[in-house]
Amino acid sequence: MAGDFAEVLEGRLAALNRAAAGAGLEQLLEQELGAPARYTLDGPDIVLHSDWAFALSLLLHELASNARRHGSLSTSEGRVDVCWHIEDSDLVLFWQESGGPPAHRPASPGVGHLLVSDAAVKLKGYAQILYLSAGLRCEIRISLLARWPQRRSGVFLGSREGRERPVHAM
C-alpha cells in the first residue's frame, strides 16, 4: 500500500515538473500517454500559459494513470482518442477511451476524480466524466483567460494570542 502511494505521488510530481518546464498541450498529452500506437491526438497547436499547464498536467496525468490502471490502456487492444478545439475563449477537450473494460462509476469519487474536477473548476470551467460500457469519456472545458489561483508564500510564527508575525518563505 505504501508503495502504491509513493508511485502515485511520484507520478503527480513528475506531471507538475513537466508543466513547470513549459510545454504545449500536445506535448503534455504525448508525455502522459506514452506509446503513440495507443492514442490519437487531434487539435490545434496550443502553447500553454504556465497556469494552464500546471492544472492541465495534473488533470491529464490523472486521466492517463486511470486509463493505464483500470481503463482502456490496461488491455493490449485499448486506446485513447483526444481531440480539442478553441471555442470563444475556452479550450474544449474530449478524452475517449475504447477497446478496454467497461468504465464503472466508483462508489465514491477518488482523489484522481476530485483532482480532475477541481483543476477544471479552478480554471473557470468543468470536467464532465461519463462512465460508459465503451470506456471512460471526459469532456473538459476551461477558460483560456483563467489563471491558477495564487497563494501567499508565508508562514506565521508566534503564539495564538494574536502576536503572530509573518515569515516569508523563499
Please provide a written account of the structure:
The protein is α+β, with helices and mostly antiparallel strands and 170 residues long. The chain has four helices and seven strands. A hairpin with a 2-residue loop joins strand 2 (79-87) and strand 3. The radius of gyration is 18 Å and the shape is globular. The model is unreliable at 151-170 (pLDDT under 50).
What is the element layout, followed by pairings?
Elements: H1 2-20, H2 25-33, E1 39-42, H3 50-69, E2 79-87, E3 90-98, H4 111-122, E4 126-132, E5 135-143, E6 154-157, E7 165-168
Parallel strand pairs: 1-2
Antiparallel strand pairs: 2-3, 3-5, 4-5, 6-7
Quick tags:
five-stranded mixed beta sheet, two-stranded antiparallel ribbon, 4 helices, 27% strand, globular, disordered C terminus
Low-confidence stretches: 151-170
Radius of gyration: 18 Å
Main sheet summary = 5 strands, mixed
| Structural class computed from helices and strand pairing | alpha+beta
State the helix count.
Answer: 4
Number of strands: 7
Strand content: 25-35%
Helix content: 25-40%
Short description:
35% of the residues lie in helices and 27% in strands. The protein has helices at 2-20, 25-33, 50-69, 111-122; strands at 39-42, 79-87, 90-98, 126-132, 135-143, 154-157, 165-168.
